[in-house]
Amino acid sequence: MTKEGLDLAIKILAELNDLSSLAERAAQGWEKAQKSADDYYLDGVALNLHGFYSGLERIFERIASRIDNVYPSGPNWHCELLNQISIEIPGIRPPVLSAELRERLEEYRGFRHVVRHVYSHHLNPEKIEQLAVKLPAVYTAIKSELTIFAEFLKTAD
Asked: Per the confidence metrics, is the pTM higher than 0.85?
């Protein structure tokens, strides 16, 4: 086990706790939006969905820079980073994410982009609902796969 691998594993596991909170807040906000039909709850759900993917991306950026020593750039770097994380780098690391989970996260990556570039009153409530409803299962899969990867980091030389 290297010090850098252990440090990254600890950071990944800590970030998972924050992601859990964001997933929970998105679910609670969605419930309140359903009961009250208040658009401000939708704004909060959208913000938490954005924060959830942004937190994942921070993890992916750390892995790309510290383990892979390759960091995508250019206008499509967000997409390239997600793809990079889902493939094996022979002799360095296994895939961080399964292909199935990478596909599921593509929707959240795209939504993060939308939240950053449109006014909140232009967000699509149906898309927010779709992502919020799927988020608990997505978080469970993320937690499982990132925990396995963190364990790999703890034992890798």
From this structure: yes
